Amino acid sequence: MNKTASISTDQHTGFHLNLQLIADDFADRAEDVTILAREDPLILDGLRMYQPGKPLNSNYLYLVFGGAIDDTFSRYENQAFAVLGSGNLSHLSDRCRILLIRGSLSFSDVFNQIQQTFEKYYNWDIQLQLALGSVNPLDEMLEASLDIFHNPVFAHDTNFYILSSPRHVKGMSQWVHDRRTGKLIAPLSLIQDFKLDAEYQRTLTTRGAQIYSEEMRGYRILYMNLWVNGKYQGRLCVDELQSEIQPGHFFALEYLGSFIELCINRHNLFQISMGNDARKFFADYLSGKATELQSITDQIQYLNWNRHDRYLCLRLETQQQDDRMHSSIATIGHIEAQIPEGLAFTYQQGIVAIVNLSFDHSSASDVISSLAIILREGLFKMGVSTEFRDFLLIPQGYTEAVEALRLGKKSQSMIWCYRFDDYLLEYMVSRISHQISPELLVSSRLEALLNYDRKNNTELYHTLKTYLEHERNSLQTAKTLFIHRSSLTYRLERIQKITRINLDDPRERLLLQICFLLMQEKEPAPLCHWFFLSGFYLS
Fold this sequence. Notes:
By secondary structure, this protein is of the alpha+beta class. The protein has 4 domains: 19-129; 132-267, Beta-Lactamase (2-Layer Sandwich); 276-433, Alpha-Beta Plaits, CATH 3.30.70; 436-534, PucR C-terminal helix-turn-helix domain (Arc Repressor Mutant, subunit A, Orthogonal Bundle), CATH 1.10.10. Helices cover 43% and strands 16% of the residues. It has helices at 19-27, 107-131, 137-149, 188-196, 198-203, 248-267, 276-287, 293-302, 327-338, 364-370, 372-377, 394-411, 424-435, 438-441, 444-456, 460-469, 474-481, 485-499, 506-521, 529-534; strands spanning 32-36, 46-49, 60-65, 80-84, 97-102, 153-157, 161-164, 176-177, 184-185, 209-212, 221-228, 231-239, 311-318, 342-346, 351-356, 380-384, 417-419. The protein has a 7-stranded antiparallel sheet with strand order 8-9-7-6-12-11-10. Strands 1-5-4-3-2 form a 5-stranded mixed sheet, with helices on one face. A 5-stranded mixed sheet has the order 14-15-13-16-17, with helices on both faces. A hairpin with an 8-residue loop joins strand 10 and strand 11.
């Protein structure tokens, strides 16, 4: 396709046709139509019958029998002719644009067909112009465009909210209802598919009408990214489900897209109210910018919450960088659809959700279960705070969620949800290690074990750690270490002889377990650095 014209988003002087748009309508009738032209600009305003000796206008398409073309046509340049039947086209300048039509159609049939094409696009243009001043311009524009593309047309914003979709046909994605906004949104599974698709990632920077291949969706999509002041605002799409996309549809989609971009610029068309004031408050609250008690109290009242309700804080992070995709933002609607009473927002390259558990007497377990699918399909990991009963403790709850996520990913990277309650001891140890170096806190008796292991190729350190983890259960310890119980007994005797540790003393056992955690918190001490990195122990 040779596109030579650009469409202004500042003003609309009417949609002009080119030969391709006219040829597309003939193709629908399976007629033999060929375009002969160096360029095919969008400048045609109407159709005329060729009359010898009459002056021609470059903005009209002239219909002529092929047999009537003689050497007098050599004087015409930059004219457009629809030639019916065979003729000596050498008499025409190579600067002329020719639509060659062969077949069984009569002169009147061809004239009427071309005239209908002009009328179709003229009426479409009028509908688009009138929609600019309507209450729902996007809906009216897309509704008017269905007969142009003969396929479903829809538009979504940067966050995958469906802003208009006047026709839903079999094979299209099933949009999900977002109770917060009342809008439809693309399902999270689809968003995730796009996030993982290299071709889709490439489409995020394109300009003008383009084709997204059928490899992922099973059908092609004619799309146009919507840009205003150099900023990506959303996408206009035509799903190739009912009829084949024609080359002229590229021009038509760009014209339609220019109207939508104009609406965005004039009326902030794509802005969806999702409680952004509340979200900004929470972001400021977590960052320490919102500290006045009155403003906090006002926010509680605005949300219709009570200060001493039961609260939960969640922190979600994706495992992939998706800033261009806006998929984290798109996830907010899906999260809030699952949480009975909660508010989600983006914060520090992730998602934070504040949940009021008192709203329907739910629990942390209920919330976690309701978000399981979202976390899995979105490739998110989530940290969960403890339940707290004071709105003023939300910043603390956020810290807990962040720490649960950090500690959980460090020790159990394969799971997707981490509760702070499960990592409280690890958190306490990490705070201690920030103040005092772990090697200074670790019992000298453990160092003695490490030295003995290094010199004798034994694994007494690991044996002791495993024995304590199994609460001194000899049978379970031996199974874990893949040794006989008698070997375990021998090792324990050697450990007590070397260290003089009293394993019957609960305080001493607790201290040892804390020491083991401290050794895991940071890089191992120089004494045992090589030992941990090697990852092997020999009996």
